[in-house]
Write a structure and sequence with these properties.
The protein has 199 residues and is mainly alpha-helical. The protein has helices at residues 20-26, 28-42, 47-68, 89-105, 108-137, 139-149, 169-174, 177-197.
């Protein structure tokens, strides 16, 4: 439906539009499964690319586990662990995993597919997360950003007071990081089986 006044000068027309960023952010996990399945089907791994790529991807998963072990989602502006260096370590870790598996797959089409998925869904997720954190934590989140994490770039020393908090495996479990680990293992095993079948 289109809402317009009779006079265009009096009021603009308001066209309902699909919020693509919100749609991508909400469905990035489902889209990730679809992308992963397509990547496995298209992959042509060798043992060399598998070892190299999975080694890189494992680094990304390790970063995600570290981040999940510090994150208190929706409770605070987390600033410990990897959050001292980047505002979005989970997404950085996911990007590294994507790069690793693209290398392991050894197909340009998989690289393009992974790149498209990461560029669209993670960009949307970052925008949505920033808007949520600004709305929920206000000046506290602004202080965190201006203290060195705006746009994920480390800058000047922060005026934001950091809480000393240690890594917790239980916290990582509460953040459901075990699901990401399971997904990592499924893709790594799938690529390994493919490499084995190809000799």
């Amino acid at each position: 439906m289109t809402f317009c006044t009779r006079s265009a000068a009096a009021s603009p027309c308001y066209l309902p539009m699909l919020d693509l960023s919100a749609w991508l952010a909400k469905r990035r996990v489902v889209l990730g499964f679809v992308c992963g399945a397509a990547a496995l089907w298209l992959a042509r791994p060798t043992w060399t690319t598998w070892m190299t790529g999975c080694g890189i991807a494992a680094t990304g998963e390790a970063l995600r586990i570290w981040a999940a072990g510090h994150l208190e989602k929706n409770r605070e502006v987390t600033s410990t662990g990897p959050y001292r260096f980047t505002a979005h370590p989970l997404y950085v870790g996911s990007s590294i995993i994507g790069v690793g598996f693209a290398i392991a797959a050894a197909r340009m089409i998989v690289t393009l597919l992974v790149g498209l998925y990461l560029a669209t869904t993670l960009t949307a997720a970052v925008r949505r997360e920033r808007a949520f954190l600004r709305a929920k934590f206000g000046d506290q989140y602004v202080a965190y950003q201006t203290g060195g994490h705006a746009d994920g770039v480390v800058r000047a020393a922060s005026a934001f007071r950091r809480v000393d908090k240690k890594f917790s495996l239980e916290r990582a479990r509460r953040n459901r990081e075990h699901r990401a680990v399971a997904g990592f293992c499924v893709v790594a095993i799938g690529l390994a089986l493919d490499a084995a079948l190809r000799g």
